[in-house]
Amino acid sequence: MNQVGVKTVLFHGPSGCGKDTQVELLVKDYEFQNIGTGEMIRKLFSEGDENAILATEYTTEGKFVPNEIIYKEMFPKWLERYDNSKNWAFVSVVREVGQIELLDKLLEEKGRKLDLFIHFTLKPEVAVERMSTRKYCPECAATFHPKFKPEQTEGFCTECNAKLVQRDDDKPEKIRKRLEEYARTIDPILEVYKKRGVLIEVDAAPSIEEIHKKVVEVLGLKNQ
Ligand SMILES: [Zn+2]
User: Ligand 1 center to residue 162 CA distance, Å?
Assistant: First the structure.
């Protein structure tokens, strides 16, 4: 069981749905800690962690990193860096059905359990419109969008000042293909959480503020 008032939430959604932006708002306004495997791999890699180096080899080749490396070796150690008395937001950490149980176990070891799975949904045409104009930071992986999240100085990362680039991945054809692949992999995962009664789907088409309001509402957070 979670401590009173402490939330454990899993966020997923296709790329371009704005999940990272939403989680950042929860970090800012509701003291959530943002926990993701992408950052884990990057940070541990920079520290010379053996498993992170191995995991990076897999991701560079576009391969799925085995659960042995991510869930059994890296994640338990990584979670020690977070404050267990705070709200936790996990972003896209369950990529296949087999990882559900592994996440359950990790949370249990921390004396927590998953309260909600918030799934952001996005229609393909909306996703294409959003992603084909976004920019990406090759240094810290931040993304910017002229309409939804503009950088402070045009063309340069607001976080680390590196020059922003457009990813080859953000071309319409590739976006559509990625969405199809996403739906194929996420559907069986959604089924499991739906049966548990913790799945909430949130339409990611409205503005950042509107979606944030919805997220705050479904999480039962008080306005501060
Ligand atoms: Zn950056």
Answer: 5
Ion ligand 1 nearby residues (CB, 5 A):
137, 139-140, 142, 157, 159-160, 162
The pTM assigned to this predicted structure is 0.82
* Structural tokens at position 124: 């393909």
Residue 63, domain extent: 8-123+186-218
Distance 165 CA to ligand 1 centre (A): 11
Percent of the chain with pLDDT over 70: 97
137 CA from centroid of ligand 1 (Å)? 5
Task: Say if 92 falls within a structural domain.
Answer: yes
Q: Is residue 168 part of a domain?
A: no
Q: What angle do CA 123, 218, 216 make, to 5 degrees?
A: 95
Contact 17, 120 (CB under 8 A): yes
Centre of ligand 1 to C-alpha 210, Å, is 26
How many whole angstroms separate alpha carbon 224 and alpha carbon 37? 29
Q: Are 151 and 157 in contact (CB under 8 A)?
A: yes
Which regions of the chain are under pLDDT 70? Answer: 1-4, 223-224
Q: What backbone torsions phi and psi does residue 163 show, to the nearest 5 degrees?
A: -75, 130
| pLDDT (0 to 100) of residue 134 | 87
Instruction: For residue 89, give the CATH number of its domain.
Output: 3.40.50.300
